[in-house]
Amino acid sequence: MTESEIRDQLNLALSAQEPPLRADVHAVRTAGVRRRRRRTTGVVAAAVVLVASAALAPGLLRGDEHARDRPPTATTSIPSTPSTPAELATRLEQLAAETGDWESVRVVAEDAQGFAIDGADRQFASRWKATYTSPDHVVTIIVTHQSDIPVTGTDTSCTAPLEFYGATSCKVSTSGAGVVRLLERPSAYDGGSWIIPSKPPGAWTIRQATSFRDDVLSVSVTEGVRRAVDAVLSDDTLTAIALDPVLDFTDRSDDESGGPCGWIVPEQRDNYSCS
Amino acid sequence: MSTSTDDFEAFYLARVRPMRRVAFVVVRDWDAAEDVVQQAFVKVYVAWPRVRRGTAEAYLRRAVVNTALSRVRRTKREVAVAEVPEVAVDGADAADDPLAILAVLPPAQRAVVALRLLDDLSVTETARILRISEGAVKSQTARALAKLRDHATASGRDAGT
Question: Is the minimum CB–CB distance between B124 and chain A shorter than 8 Å?
């Protein structure tokens, strides 16, 4: 049986069994409008942000060889399943413990104003921040809600946005504070129900990260973090990597490339000028 | 350049049926496929102001395939089987259902089959949509075709006895 025969057989069978369409474009529009509205009002969405500290940048600019020494890197795989805040904190701590070489590790839950919160109130944290410190590096992983992600790009001016299939990256100016961010917004949470039904209320989600590099197309978040740090240390640049292939899809010829957009949360892109 | 709402409607009408077929091959259930496609089009609609005409197709395909694969992962721990069960749902014989042969493929291979055979995408395009290497697309396609051929041959033998 040839490939085309298999194709024909599949098409015939599909045609024979295909039921009438129930879907209609108005339902799509209505759901889409609702979803847009939810996003613009800043309803919660899960996100993962990696910030490689400002301490990295000056050394890179000076070509300081010590700055190129790789920091302790993580090899732990964070499962791509939803996790509760407590599980997330445990994972962030485990991640540090298993790398072994960090001088200090600090995992804190913060409220929307950045104040640390503890105990049962951590359920209501706006973000979690894990800071790993070594003699030469400070790497901070921030897990946050979408509404808390800094989107204006003021502290990460994107001097040379590069578009590639399915994700957006840009070289970030390392003058002054340098920041590397990994971002993911896999789902939205709206007053008790998840738009993606598999995500239970109160869950945080860590999903697969996708690097801009061809050789790291599919890695766990942890691996993505490691690669991003490696990229920082080897390229003299800080690299912002947007995740979620569906939501972050941007065409190579996008009008916005070349603009001083800085870090962009795609859903927020319409809310400020990139030109 | 953004496209208009009318353009979206035209795009929807042109693509909804082929995309439902693609989704069906992955999820193997027409109702689920319809949900998948609906969700994918909602994603496209949300992104429509910034999706360009040339990229809307790829955006949609990726949304459909990702949503379909997520749904398969979510709804059940699906295990590829060497043989199609003899009795299908609703009591129909598997032999009466040519699409039952899809059960011999794991979801990822079904996604490759859907894009390569139904949607007529090239190896390169399929690799981009699925975010895997072209080599992986080729090998997955070859494996899927081999399984489908084996199954068709076995079915033919059984029918002849």
Answer: no
